[in-house]
Amino acid sequence: MVVILYTTKYKTGGAEMEMAANHMVRQKKDSIAIRIESKAEFLDAIASIQEPIDELHFIGHSGLYGPMFGTTKFPDQMSRSDWRTLQIPFAPNGSAYFHCCRGARWFAPYFAQRYRVPTFGHMSYTTFSHSPDFYCKLLPDRDDVFVVSVPGYKSRGLVGYLRKRIGRAPTVPLSRFEPGPDEDASYDGVAELYDQVFEDFRVRRDEWEWLSKNMIRDGSVLDIGCGNGALLLALATLIKQGIGIDVSHRMIQVASHRGRGEANLNFRLYDGLSVPGEDETFDVVISMLSWRYLDWDPIVREITRLLKPGGQLLIVDMVVAPFKPKLIPRILADKARHFFSGIGAPSFRKALKRLVQDPAWATMLQHNPMRAEHEMRNYLPSRFPGIEIQTLNRTPRSEMLACRWAKPDSLNDRT
Ligand SMILES: C[S@@+](CC[C@H](N)C(=O)[O-])C[C@H]1O[C@@H](n2cnc3c(N)ncnc32)[C@H](O)[C@@H]1O
Fold it and tell me: 293 and 208, same structural domain?
């Protein structure tokens, strides 16, 4: 059977998505379309399917872990652990299709690998058309709607825009991904090289300055995704106790070795879901360059449980962000600052070069990409009301975000 799932509320284009789903039902034999507006409804829809699925289609918006549900004010999405546990009854020749913006950048290859089925997605942004082969503006009296991808930024880059206006800009077909051999997706293979680059956390000046300015002193600190432990080592004399957790056992070995002389530090392997510890035990929870990898809803529950009232959440992470000409002065200033601080740290630069040129680094990055800016900027305020988000530095296509939140004294006392 052919299962077509679609959403209408997250971002724009909801009515067109419903029309595209209904049109697909008319075109495909033995098919059903199910409207889903939340992760729970998505899971229920999959659980309700009793027959083997020949084709699974999703029409909607996509984040790093695929379908986005809910609204931009309160986004809802699958996480890596959800996909790990969810069984989808594919037929032996089954396949999956994600008709969403940029679903092929990371999610379609991930899905192909996870479910061992050919998976299709768009590399670029999507729009709607009455033809699957070229773009044409939707007419009010027609209900034959297709989700299509047309070249150009947001399908509107200058060339794309002109071709669309002149008429008949050809569409780009969905890209196909096959399941590949299993590879080590963790940081285990790069732990030693990573440690050589960041043996002293203070080399990351923007992050260290921001933390030094904003972090509560003398408290107990949980560092999620602690890596080689360099941050807690740099903080050791400023805090009462520090616990670092990480899913990479090689990283934990490196961190434990480095921290062996510090009685107030402890590093533990983490299962990625539940953090061992009593409720309200930490003054500060930190996530440095690891937020992108975490299972967001489960870790939010854990952070809220573990933080003392008034305790702090500090997140720094790099996100993919679109280029904006008005940011050129900021980009140039940040580049110059990094260039001059790099001159004084030649061993750091050499170690960084060794890390990024190592094939294990490329493999790891392929399995663990950065999140998009909008995912972080929509998600964090929805779960941590009042969170402050600022830009630490910018490159043409990425942005380092620093986020600070204080847990209210009572759950009703939310700013
Ligand atoms: C870029 S490193 C950052 C390490 C350290 N926080 C730092 O700033 O140098 C990302 C770390 O996140 C860890 N990680 C990946 N997935 C994780 C997860 N689900 N839970 C906890 N840590 C995770 C990796 O093993 C790695 O050590």
Answer: yes
Indicate if 173 and 196 belong to the same structural domain: no
Which atom of ligand 1 lies at the shortest distance from residue 295's CA? 19
Using the CB atoms, write b or e for 170-204: b if 16+ within 10 Å: ebeebbebeeeeeeebbbbbbbebbbebbbebebb
Atom 22 (ligand 1) nearest CA: 225
CA of 368 to the centre of ligand 1 (A): 10
Whether the model pTM is above 0.70: yes
Give residue-wise pLDDT tens across range 101-126: 999 999 999 999 999 999 999 998 89
- Residues 322 and 290 placed together within one structural domain of the fold: yes
- Same domain? 383 vs 356: yes
- How many angstroms separate the alpha carbon of residue 296 from the centre of ligand 1? 14
Query: pLDDT tens digit string along 295-335?
Result: 999 999 999 999 999 999 999 999 999 888 999 999 999 99
Domain hosting residue 333, numbered range: 188-406
Q: Tokens 């790069």, residue?
A: 190
CATH number at residue 359: 3.40.50.150
Atom of ligand 1 nearest to the CA of 223: 6
pLDDT over threshold 50, residue 415? no
